[in-house]
Structures are given as C-alpha cells and as structure tokens.
Amino acid sequence: MLWLCLILLNLPHCQLTLMIPNAVFAYFRERFPPINMALFAILFFTVQAVSSFFIAGQEERPFWWYILGILAVISFFFRLRVFDEIKDFDIDLHNHPQRVLQSGRIGLKHLISLSVLGTVIEIVWSLLSGWPVILVWLFALGYSLLMRYEFFTGKFLNKYLLLYATTHMLVMPLIILWVYTAFHPALEILFPFYILAALSLLSGFSFEVARKIHSPVAERPGVDSYSKSLGYSTSVILVLLLLLGGVLVQLYLLSLIDARLWAYVLIGIVFFFALLLYVNNLFRPTEKSLRLAEKIVSLFMLAAYMSIIIEVYFQ
C-alpha cells in the first residue's frame, strides 16, 4: 500500500500504527460524527432508490455488497475530511487548539492510516461492481486530489470563499455518479442522475453556507465565514436561495416518482421553519438561532433523502 499513500497523500511513508480507541472515537465524535455517517448511508440508498425506480432490470446484489458500498461511500467522505485536516492543520492549531487532533490526542498519521484502509474498501467495492464503476471512482478520486491541493491555485482561491466552496462542492455530483454507476454500470448517464446530482449539490451547498454564517458579535479573527466574506445579509439570502433551489428540485423529483402528499408537506414544513429562522435572523441575529437554522438545513437533506426512499420502496 506504499504507492497508494504516496499518490493520495504525498507523504514519504505510511505506517499503520496502533491507535488509542478512545482518541479515535473522540475524533469521530468531534469531526466526523456518526450522524454524518448515517446520512452518507442514506445517500447511498437514495441513489439506489432513484436508479431502481427509473431503470428496470437491475442486477440482484448480495447483502454484503450493500454493506461494502455504504462503507466505501463513508470512506470517500472521510478521506475528504482527512484532506481538509492536512490542509488546515496549522490554521486550526491556532484557532482551535482544543480539538482532538490539534491537542495531540490523535495524529495525522493515524487519520491517514484509516483513510488508506477505507480507500482499499472503495477499490474492492468498485472492482466488484464493474469496470465502469472503478473508472468513475478514479475520476472522482482525481478531482478530490485536485481539491486536496486546492487546484494548485490556493492563494487565489482562498481570497474568494464562495468560489473556493463552489470548486469543492462539485465533488458531490461525482460521488453520486460513482454510486449511480454501480447500480447502472453501462456508462450511460440518464436523466435521474442529473436530478440527484442537482439535489445533492444544492442541499450540500446550502448546509456548507449555513454552517459558516455567524452573528456579527460571534465572528472570530482568523476564522473564515460567509457572513464575513460576503456580508451578513447577503450570506443569509444566499443560503435561502440555495435551499429554495434544493426544495424545487426535490419537489420535482417527488412528482416524478409519484410521491404521496405527506412528502410534499414535510419538505414544505422544513423549508418554512428555515425561512422563518433566517428572516428573523436578518433583523435580530443571534448565534444560537443561527445554529438552530443550520440544523434545520441539515434536516432538509435528511427529509429529502428519506422521503425518496420511503416513496420508492414503501408506497
């Protein structure tokens, strides 16, 4: 696996070391919590649900193949997290010295070791799923490596937070395509993929913006935020527009799968509460209320994906 470490992480060596379980669990709770892993698993089954609805005659897969696929998707997102930890280590050491990684309870080499193990799972699952899947995985991996090195224009991108985020969020449709190809390995991109890609991109982008909006009194020197980069009101309007775009795509997808009324109502309720919170924060911004709004935005992703799964499989 030495070659894999050199390619993925540009490090002189990769050593799988014995890690302290408590520190590993503490890191995951802090930076890659189980709720995130559950959402990635739900994303996997959402892609399966949409592909099975629109594409007839899919191959039957054993139960362990699905488990391996879920682990592969979680691993891909975890590697993105590790790439971010490598890029931002020095900055986070200054701004967040109390974190598990920055405090030394766990090291980058431990995270790298875990990500290499996960990459092996991705390769195995992709190979088992067919050569088209491994080709799409390589493309997605290649794009994530460009993200790791900030497209070799880091000084420029770091001046424009929105542009930086846009280039990095484009990995989401590639991950969707990777999983989609596993259920439809004909290297034929059909219409459902574009809908799913748009939903994942808009919902993911809205959450990315939401988590980096702070009230004026909560802004910290040296810590980037959209409210600081774009202006507070502009960033709030942006997250609402992204969320509205995600809602419209979701409603269209629900109509395509002949969803029942409850799914539309659920999405409408989630958006209504998000709108209510953000409009209130435009006039009376508080950090507590913004963090609640962030949770509502993440709830939209969960509600969108789960409503698709339920309507496809349990009508």
From TrEMBL:
This is Prenyltransferase. Keywords: Cell membrane, Membrane, Transmembrane, Transmembrane helix. It is a multi-pass membrane protein. It is found in: Membrane. The keyword DNA damage does not apply. The chain crosses the membrane at residues 6-28, 35-57, 63-80, 131-149, 161-183, 189-210, 230-255, 261-280, 292-314. GO terms for molecular function: transferase activity, transferring alkyl or aryl (other than methyl) groups. GO terms for cellular component: membrane. The keyword tRNA-binding does not apply. Pfam families: UbiA.
